[in-house]
Amino acid sequence: MRILLCTLLACISTLGSVQGQTIGALIAQLRSSNVKERVTAAEALMADPNRSAEANTALIALLAKEDDVVREAYREGVGASGKYGEGYSEYVARLGEVVMAIADKEPQRADVWPALLNSPYDPESAFAKWLASRGDKATPFLLASAANGDAGTRADAILVLAQIAAYERKSTAASRRLTPEALQVVEKAIRAGLTAPETIVRLQAVKAVALMGNRDDLETLDRIAASDPYFSSGAGPRGDETRFAIRDAAREAGKSIRLRINTQAQ
Amino acid sequence: MITGIADTLNWSNTLYQGASGYLAIFGTTLIAWGETPTPTVTGDGDITIGSIIYASDSQVNVSYTVSAQAAAGSHTLLLQTARGTARGQVQVAAPCGDQRDAMIAEYVTYSVDLLPTCSSFTQSSPTANFTFAVLNSGTYAWAILTGYLGSGLDGIFAHEPYAMVITSGYRNPVKANSVNPSSVKTSRHEHGDGVDIATYSNDTQWTTMHDAAKQWGTPGGTPCMEPRSVSTNNHLHVDWRPINCPASWLL
User: Fold this and answer.
1) CB–CB contact B249 A122 (8 Å)
2) Model confidence at B95, in pLDDT bands (50, 70, 90)?
């Protein structure tokens, strides 16, 4: 299968790396300050289906390192894809997928969750949905992010917390990962975002409430739909429309919750 | 029995006049259950087969060269073991006769994970709302603009939360390499199914454009979008790759 999926020369190179270099040498290469060297070693280790426990530990540590690299590039304003290229961001994403698989096999590991939760991801991605079903591991980190991060980080944490809350609400008692008290804390953190001064936090909080909200949220959402001040102009196909993105999202959230209430009532 | 033959660079069955590279021959009992560890592979007069790089019952890899004068069309390769001879077909195509030949050569030079053919390129926009010049960030008068890029952009345009500006579209490999050498082998901008949209260093604008874009994906999915924490909030990278959008990106 591996031969089917990669080019001939790349295959030879990959197999040669694993066979020709000791695992120890590859692991040492993961600590290089040179991105290209780290990527080469990581790709060789990730491609090895019989990876050792030592290699798994090294890949988790590598993801944690790349998380720092991504955050530093973000702080610099260029972003990791701008600084190191799209190829780098795709490599970090692949590394994250390998670490997800390790987390599935060894969820009790202490090192795996901080590396995954700090990694770059879209709050509506498959990865975020995967996190939603592991609320016991993700919630403490996300609550901290929702309280203390910059506006974008807080906003995205709120949207993932909402997926956790929705998952918990839908789960049976046996498959729930959070206590009722912990779930209440999560829901309170999400709703707090509705009144945040930052538009990005309000926007993501409204989308979040759409996922987990109930009848009690409708009044707030209706008020936001009528009065949230955020707008953008020059929208639409003729460029002459004014859009109120948060009001629109609140209207959609209200519709979703009403639909959910009606469905549950039937 | 041979079930398929593909150039290992791009897994295409089409080879070009004057080209050389490696072929993967797929099938069953290609080394006769080990009885012929190194089978004999021969081309016709137009295709020369060199050394065998790898051989197993399911796959044999060989080097090849296509004559510059090879006839366009179907050509037959033979694979011989102690148990008999198997036949397989490859197609030989003529050069495009314009800038596209240089563009295709760039894909080979930079080992891009795509080897386009003449018909991969266009000189017109697949959308009524963005001109070819806007979508072509390359250095030639041709570009690859493919897949759901056109319909996806039209969908976003109709629902744009603010005036939508594309900052980068198709890039030929030389251009992609100048933007960032580490991405030159795989960039979706070279595949012609990715664009960057300006989001003006604003988290809310990034998110509203992201939310507008996510409705306009491939059938059954959203477009593939790079996370904001990777791209920053100065642009939204959207592409319509057919498969392999990372789990941590939006799809």
Assistant:
1) yes
2) confident
Q: Is A3's pLDDT higher than 70?
A: no
Which residues 113-172 in chain B show a CB within 8 A of chain A?
113, 129, 157-163
Task: Tell me whether residues A7 and B8 touch, CB distance under 8 A.
Answer: yes
Query: Would an 8 Å CB–CB cutoff place B244 in contact with chain A?
Result: no
If you average pLDDT over every residue of chain B, what do you get? 94
Tokens of B123: 């000189």
- Which residue of chain A has the CA closest to B159? A236
Of all residues in chain B, the one with the smallest CA distance to A97 is B247
pLDDT, residue B187, reads 94
Mutating which of A35, A88, A89 best tests the B interface, going by the most B Cβ atoms within 10 A? A89
pLDDT score recorded for residue A154:
97
CB contact under 8 A, A7 and B203: no
Write out the H or E segment, with its range, that includes residue A234.
Answer: strand A232-235
Q: Does the pLDDT at position B33 exceed 60?
A: yes
Dump pLDDT digits (tens) for A207-226.
999 999 999 999 999 999 99
Q: ipTM more than 0.95? A: no
Question: How far is it, in rounded angstroms, from Cα A76 to Cα A74?
Answer: 5
- CB burial string A168-201: b at 16+ within 10 A, e below: beeeeeeebbbeeebbeebbebbbebbebebbbb
What's the confidence (pLDDT) of residue A8? 38
Within 8 A by CB and 6+ apart from A112, the residues are: A60, A99, A102, A103, A106
Computed over its alpha carbons, how large is the radius of gyration of chain A? 22
Contacts of B61 in chain A (CB under 8 A): 3, 8
User: Does B191 lie at the interface with A, CB-CB under 8 angstroms?
Assistant: no
| Out of A7, A36, A122, closest to residue B227 by CB | A122
Nearest to B230 among A89, A236, A245 (CB): A89
Name residues whose C-beta falls within 8 Å of residue A188's C-beta, 6 or more positions apart in sequence.
none
Residue A162 token pair:
């909402």
Both tokens of B108, joined, read: 């080979």
Residue among B59, B181, B230 minimizing CB distance to A80: B230
Both tokens of A247, joined, read 């009001």
Confidence at residue A265, expressed as pLDDT on a 0 to 100 scale: 81
Dist CA A152 CA A158 (whole Å): 10
Find the helix packing angle between B149-158 and B203-213, rounded to 10°. Answer: 120
For residue A257 the two structure tokens come to 């919750």
What 3-state DSSP class applies to B20?
strand
What residues of chain A lie within 8 A of the CB of B232, using their CB?
A: 74, 77-79, 82
- Tokens for B226? 């790079």
- Select the residue from B129, B193, B211, B232 to test the A interface by mutation, using most A Cβ atoms within 10 A: B232
A180, A219, A222, A215: CA torsion to nearest 10: 50
